[in-house]
Amino acid sequence: MGSWYWWMLFGMAVVTYIPRAFPLTFLEGKELPPVISGILRNIPFAVLGALIFPAVLYIQEGDILFGFIGAIIAVTLAFLFQNVMVVVLGTVGFLAVYSLFI
Fold first, then answer.
1. Could you tell me if 77 and 92 are in contact, meaning their C-beta atoms sit under 8 angstroms apart?
2. In angstroms, rounded to a whole number, what is the distance separating the alpha carbons of residues 28 and 77?
3. How far apart are CA 93 and CA 90, in angstroms?
């Protein structure tokens, strides 16, 4: 491994550390406004949706219906059970059975 590897590793560590250290250092003991707190609380859900949606469209090449059926099953199970493992295993199981019939 060349020295570029260690410099790249160090750079990635610094870039990852800065967004985590900034709030701890400068916002410690301060209360954020409710609007900002609400936005920050919803960021993980927005990012998760942005990561998952393209996968729904490209899950099976040539069959976009497969992804949409999986998304509908996942959303339905999430509303009914609200348990991530039930949603994931139920969706995978349903799509596995569905793929046997197509």
1. no
2. 39
3. 5
Q: Give the pair of three-digit tokens for residue 67.
A: 């992804």
pLDDT in tens, 22-34: 888 887 788 888 9
Token pair of 90 as six digits: 């139920």
Residues in the chain: 102
Question: pTM for the whole thing?
Answer: 0.57
Distances (CA, A) of 20 to 13, 15, 26, 82: 11, 9, 11, 29
Q: Is the pLDDT of residue 45 over 80?
A: no
Cβ within 8 Å of residue 74, ≥6 positions away: 87, 88, 90, 91
Are 91 and 73 a contacting pair, CB within 8 Å?
A: yes
